[in-house]
């Protein structure tokens, strides 16, 4: 499913001294002469990086995603960047505008209200299932996560976003 121009990106050699690229793509550094990555892997990693930047607000709603600039920043060809842009457009995070490029999707106040209402419905359902299906280990993990978050908040620290209570509830519901 690659265009002819993507064939150039099929095998990319990442020199050992290019730690910046590995860091940006969140690759594990392997101290060897070279690390060969496939275009699919680069596309997946690039998609993950751009998705994270959008969801964390590093790339604002309405902002243009410039493929050339992003490719230069990451030290990649435009193939993996185009793949990431297409994937994120299909997920609804980017809007493709003919002859203008890709832009981060902005949401209206009404859309946000609807999304939060849907999220609340799904989380309540997941919590009900978790209450019925959870194991003792899952319950202990949930309690530990809540206790640690409460301790951090009581100490004046910001909410620990890395503590994904919602994920634990969904796992317990499965």
Search tags:
174 residues; mainly alpha; 3-stranded antiparallel sheet; two-stranded antiparallel sheet; 7 helices; 5 strands; disordered N terminus
Order of helices and strands: EHEHEHHEEHHH
Report helical residue fraction: 55-70%
Question: How would you sum up the global shape?
Answer: elongated
Strand adjacency order, main sheet: 3-5-4
**Integer average pLDDT:** 78
Helix tally?
7
Largest sheet properties? 3 strands, antiparallel
- Regions with little confidence, pLDDT below 50 for 5+ residues: 1-37
Query: Which class best fits the helix and strand makeup?
Result: mainly alpha
Question: Approximately how much beta-strand content do the residues carry?
Answer: 5-15%
What is the strand tally? 5
């Amino acid at each position: 499913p690659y265009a002819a121009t993507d064939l150039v990106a099929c095998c990319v050699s990442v020199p050992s001294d290019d730690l910046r690229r590995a860091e940006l793509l969140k690759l594990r550094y392997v101290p060897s002469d070279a690390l060969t990555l496939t275009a699919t892997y680069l596309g997946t990693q690039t998609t993950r990086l751009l998705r994270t930047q959008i969801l964390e607000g590093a790339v604002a709603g309405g902002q243009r995603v410039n493929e050339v600039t992003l490719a230069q920043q990451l030290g990649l060809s435009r193939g993996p960047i185009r793949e990431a842009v297409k994937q994120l457009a299909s997920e609804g995070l980017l809007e493709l505008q003919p002859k203008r490029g890709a832009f981060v999707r902005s949401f209206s106040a009404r859309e946000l209200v609807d999304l939060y209402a849907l999220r609340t419905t799904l989380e309540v359902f997941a919590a009900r299932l978790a209450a019925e299906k959870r194991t003792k280990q899952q319950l202990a993990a949930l309690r530990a996560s809540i206790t640690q978050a409460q301790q951090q908040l009581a100490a004046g620290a910001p909410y620990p976003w890395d503590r994904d209570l919602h994920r634990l509830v969904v796992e317990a519901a499965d």
